[in-house]
Amino acid sequence: MKDQRILLIISGGIAAYKSLELIRRLREQGATVRCILTQAATEFVTPLSVAALSAQPVYTEIFSLKDESEMGHIRLSREADLVVVAPATGDILAKMVLGIADDLATATLLATNRPVLVAPAMNVHMWHNPATQRNIAQLQKDGVTIVGPAEGPLADGEFGPGRVVEPPVLVEAIRGKLAGLAADDSSAPLRGARVLVTSGPTHEAIDPVRYIANRSSGKQGHAIAAALARLGAQVTLVAGPTQEPNPPGVQTVAVESASQMLAACQAALPTDIAIFAAAVADWRVAEASGDKIKKGATAPSLHLVENPDILATIATAGPRRPKLVIGFAAETDTLIDNARSKLARKNCDWIVANSVARGAVFGQADNLVHLVTASGVEDWPRLSKEEVAERLARRVTDWMKTSGNKDAG
Ligand code: C5P
Question: What distance in angstroms lies between residue 243's CA and the mean position of ligand 1's atoms?
Fold first, then answer.
């Protein structure tokens, strides 16, 4: 289960305490476990114990400004290999069937595009109730995996099915589900394709505390790496300093400067495809000071030298050149002309051009881009950065199908 990401939703039942052990066991196996607690679950286990055991922030409220700014529920629901609801009360199962989204847990379940596994736990009569049985049948039809419940004495003194399955059994079920998902992936359209993606800014040190950088959140590049990985590609993401979490299923190499980014990109070759979404600083200080420069009577002057152009270097790498090289062009004016000349000058195959004229791109959720290739310009509608990433990943898939073994066009 190494490097697998599990989003564990704990709903409010007496069996919630068993989720603490589940978290511990999943982490022992190398999984990362992020948790959402329903309001009722917080009556049975404290967010603090869940946070301590998972070593991750715990999410409880949909209208928490802090949670939404750190991690919106859509992202929370997408950045997992598997969503597990344990224990799953009769109430949360019913809400899942109806698509009710009245708290963070249920909104996340409605928003997710990841596989879901539930471990029901409730009183035996609640379990046998035709409503619950109808719900379970519907969830199975919807593709949800149901594990349990186990039979035995229940917390309320009754006996029968209703106990949540024990943590070791649930861990095995989760492992089996993840293995099945990996096997299914043989149909993934980009399976076997190797892709290099750069993302984020670079920081060029002036001294140990100051640096030169471009504005870049890394949102677009990270979303592209994640979208390609979801289609089965083997992705190396070379990322400058960003707040973005490492995308699941992607090998992320963290770098600071342009020189480090170039070295990491060269080390990642050979790849079939390379996408350069990083906002690399064009210049660095010729000689960064080893000590903090003191404020004096006059401001220091910086001697700048040009950084290597990573895209152009890789795109002219001779036999090691990836077959499809995609660059980005953020321009404030004459967008398409600039993108076209960049296409030729940097020897790349496609350019994703976006206007940054009104500063409405950096750190924002959406993007308005044009895809410039030798055969023309495609104007894409305003899309979220995730949608831009998915669309680009689909275009790469089409390219693989039609011209993967020929020249890019
Ligand atoms: O020349 P400009 O910076 O506008 O080019 C943008 C494209 O070139 C982006 O794809 C960016 O990632 C890449 N680039 C690079 N190394 C640089 C400068 C830009 O890879 N030093």
Answer: 21
